[in-house]
Amino acid sequence: MNRTRLSLSAMLLLGGCNMAPHYERPAPPVPATLPTGAAYASRLDSQAGLPWTQLVQDTRLRTIVERALANNRDLRAALANVQSARAQYRVQRAAQLPTITADAGASVARQNDARQNSYSADLGFSAFEIDLFGRVRNLTESALESYLATEEGARSTRITLIAETATAYATLAADQELLALSRQTQASAQRTLDLTRSLNAAGLAGKLDVHQAETTVEQAASDVAANITQVAQDRNALDLLAGTPIEDALLPASLDSLIAGVARVPAGLSSDILLQRPDVLQAEHQLKAANADIGAARAAMFPKISLTSAIGVASSALSALFKGNAFVWSVGPSASLPIFGGANRGNLDYSKAQRDLYLAQYEKAIQTAFREVADALARDGTIDAQQAAQRRLVAASSRAYDLADQRYRAGVDTFLTTLTSQRSLYSARQSAIATDLALISNHILLYRVIGADQ
To answer: Are 196 and 210 in contact (CB under 8 A)?
Structure first.
């Protein structure tokens, strides 16, 4: 009895062995605070990140984002991967417990006019591995971390989908503005061309003025065709992201209204927020899984002990099957020990190399996150000044064009001055639209790169 207790105690002690290296989160290879300087706005945010429902305040865009979250196929695929990883984890976890089976059997045989009957019923389990060295436990831990990594991957896909949908919507709004601008410019240039042709017919303008006016009309006509194509392609991209066609009623009203409909995301001060980004967490879970794989590979170099046992009843007569003297039991332990461990040593070296690989990827994910946030903050710190300057440029170009057009009509200046002013105004308006789009896109980018969708 004492020997049996000692053996059981030893097995329980060995069952607590874990040959995986102790995991400690690596120190982030980035500065502790986000960058500051001339390119960065002065930020005193106590928190970082924003729920997408607070980011997107435009009701039309919010409806489209909700559709994307419900219908986008990439997100569905990511969620299916999560379900697959969860199922694999459950399968691996089940290996830690014995699988109990119930068997019942009967046989009837006749030999030399003698009839032999046999009946049995038993419960038991076969080849259950006693996890003395933590091999099965570490494999289960690896499967769990892989499952958690896919969950973070799905969360990253969700955040990226929201950001891409909002950006595509803003791009469509900007291209609609560019299309309207090119049509306005074409109509204005056509009026100027008609006037120049009339002046040429009256001998008050040269043929060169006519041809110069034609260049502006044709350039605008070319831009109209290109912008029509771009708007159609933008709608196709938005339909793909949303997973369903978007009706005209949900298209953006204007770029200005969208500027007010997308909030600015707080970034906080500490770079620790980056450790909570889903892609960084995904990389860390993969690192933890690789760490557990080392433990499983080490345990594979030690004896593997399995147990097969059964209890039940057996009798040659069915009527006596459940009587006291019909009780039977069996226990069949077995052990195997690798003698030539070349493959196991190779598996261990491979597991260590994989751990080093995932460590590098984890650190690279943090560095990439820091760079992305720093770039977005640099744009955020200067975009307001650029937008204000660009709008002043449009106003000044508009005044210059109006004055040049009046002087040309009065015969004071040549058409070249008017043409130059018209092209400058057109370019300034295009740049203003691009700047407005950059402002909206940067707000959305900050939401994505901070990755804290609370």
So the answer is: yes
Cα dihedral sign for 440, 446, 447, 448?
positive
Over residues 192-235, the pLDDT tens digits come to 899 889 988 888 888 998 998 899 999 999 999 999 999 999 99
- Flag the least confident range among 229-233, 318-322, 379-383, 439-443: 318-322
> Which residues lie below 8 Å from residue 43, measured CB to CB, with a gap of 6+?
34, 266, 267, 268, 269, 377
CATH number of 14-96+131-302+337-450: 1.20.1600.10
Residue 39: count other Cβ atoms within 10 Å of its Cβ. Answer: 14
Long-range contacts made by residues 108-115, C-beta under 8 angstroms, separation at least 24?
none
Nearest Cα to 292, choosing from 154, 119, 81, 144?
144
d(CA 425, CA 121): 94
Query: Do the beta carbons of residue 293 and residue 355 sit within 8 Å?
Result: yes
Give the torsion through C-alpha atoms of 214, 217, 222, 223, to 10 deg: 140
Map residue 129 onto helix, strand or coil. Answer: strand
Q: What is this structure's pTM?
A: 0.85
